[in-house]
Amino acid sequence: QRIVLVAGTFDILHESHINMLRNARNLGDKLIVMLSTDEFNATKGKKSYQEYDTRKYVLESVRYVDLVIPEQSWDDKALYIDMFDVDIFAMGDDWRGKFDFLKDEFPHLKIMYFPRGKISSSKVKEELGKL
Ligand code: C2G
Questions:
Q1: Whose CA, among 47, 53, 90, 124, lies 20 to 30 Å from 70?
Q2: pLDDT per residue rounded down to tens, the chain (131 residues)
Q3: What are the Cytidyltransferase-like domain coordinates in residue numbering (predicted)?
Q4: Cβ count within 10 A of residue 44
């Protein structure tokens, strides 16, 4: 079984997120999503509209997602790659190159970057404000 891991905040889930999740799931047999906690986002100066439990609830109802686990710090990627024996780590290409260092610790790991979709949660929020 090939295990795929993705990470993100997934606030106000939209079709570009779904495309990314579907593409990631299609790389293997099981998709694990590391979901940023509200506390982790706060350390990055980010605040989501939906709190962690809501984002988790929504993601768990997506057919491409097998498991949702919390991302509480930058070190959690290595922790979970090891724990779940992850084969592929996938992200949108807004993160291109940023996680290539994981290959030093996990030489067997494949790192894939997908072209980023058109929609962004911040754009959605901005446009909703204009309605
Ligand atoms: N994404 C995408 N196209 C979009 C929006 C998002 O491909 N239009 C991808 C991002 O590249 C990311 C995932 O969907 O792989 C989740 O996006 P965000 O919630 O914006 O994730 P982010 O906060 O960038 O999370 O540890 C790193 C962070 O957890 C990354």
A1: 124
A2: 999 999 999 999 999 999 999 999 999 999 999 999 999 999 999 999 999 999 999 999 999 999 999 999 999 999 999 999 999 999 999 889 999 999 999 999 999 999 999 998 888 888 989 99
A3: 6-126
A4: 10
Nearest-CA residue for ligand 1 atom 28 is 8
CA distance 98 to 94: 9
Please name the amino acid found at residue 119.
Answer: I
46 classed as catalytic: yes
User: Best mutation site among 5, 6, 9, 98 for ligand 1, i.e. most ligand atoms within 8 A of its Cβ?
Assistant: 9
Task: Verify whether residue 130 is a known catalytic residue.
Answer: no
DSSP per-residue string spanning 45-82:
T---SS-HHHHHHHHHTSTT--EEEEE-STTHHHHHHH
